Amino acid sequence: MDLMDIQAPPEGTYAEADGVKYHYVELGEGSATVFLHGGGPGCTGWADFGQVARLFATERRCLLVDILQYGKSAKPVIEGPMWDYHAAKTVALLDELGVDRADFVCNSWGGTIALNLAAKYPERVRSLVITGSMPVFYGPLAPLPEGGRRGRNARDVYYGGTGPSWQKMRELIARLEWFDPAAIPDGTVTLRYEQSLDPEETALAGASDNPRGDWQDLTAELGQIAAPTLFLWGMQDAFLTPDYPLMLARMIPKGNLHVMSEASHHPQEERPYDYHSVVSGFLNQQHN
C-alpha cells in the first residue's frame, strides 16, 4: 500500500469525557496505543497519523484522538494551565474508553500533553514516543526559533491577510513540517485545509484573548516521568534542532533519543515505514 497517499478519514466515534466531547478513530486490536496530533492549522488524529497507524494496527489497538479545540472534538475555551487541562481531560477519555494504561505516540502539541500526563498520572502511561514537542521554553545551545513562537506565528500568518487557502496550507507544510516539499501529497494538503475552515477552529485562531489556556513550562514535570520515553526527531525539524530533544532525554530518567535523517517536523508522514520500525521496536521492548 502507498502510505504517502492518505485515504479519506473514517467516520470515527464520539465519546463524552468529563463534560467535553472527543472524536477519535479506532483501528486494530491489542495493546492500547493513543496517538495525539500536533497543533498546526487543520491538524487531526487522522491527518497526522492516519497513514502510519495502519501499520501499528496490525498488532495494536490504535486510538487516533482529535485533541480538544481541533478536528471534530469539542472546542471549549480553556482557562487556567493548558497542559494540566488537556492531561486531565485525556485521562477522563481513557476512563470512558476502558483503557487503564496505554502507550502514547505523539507529535508536537500532543506530545507536550502526553509528557504532562505521564508526570501527573504515571499509572496510566506505559511508554511515550514524542516528536517535535516543546515542553520547556529554552534550548541548550541556542535561542529557540522566533522565541519559541514559530508555531503561533505561522498560525497567525495562515489565518491572517486574505485568510486560509489551499496554497497557503501547502506552503505552511512545506516550510515547517516536511523535509522534501515535492513529496507532500495533495490529499494531505486538502485534508488539512478543509479542516482549517471549521468555523469554531477559525474563531479560536482569531480570538484576541487566550482561548487555549495559560502556557506551562514543564521543567519540573520532566524529572517526574517514570515511563520509558523515546524522543524521535527529524534531523531537519524546523522548530527545534536535535540538541533540544537530547536535552529533554537527559532530563527524563528513562529518556532515549533517535534522530531521523531527511525528515522535519512530521517524520511519521514523511517516512512512515521507518517511523513504524523504530517506534514499534521501542514499544514492544517495554512489553518484554
UniProtKB/TrEMBL annotation:
Residues 34-272 form the AB hydrolase-1 domain. Pfam families: Abhydrolase_1. Keywords: Hydrolase. Transmembrane segments: none annotated. InterPro entries: AB_hydrolase_1, AB_hydrolase_fold, AB_hydrolase_sf, Epox_hydrolase-like. The keyword Zinc does not apply. The keyword Kinase does not apply. SUPFAM superfamilies: alpha/beta-Hydrolases. GO terms for molecular function: hydrolase activity. It comes from the Bacteria. This is Alpha/beta hydrolase.
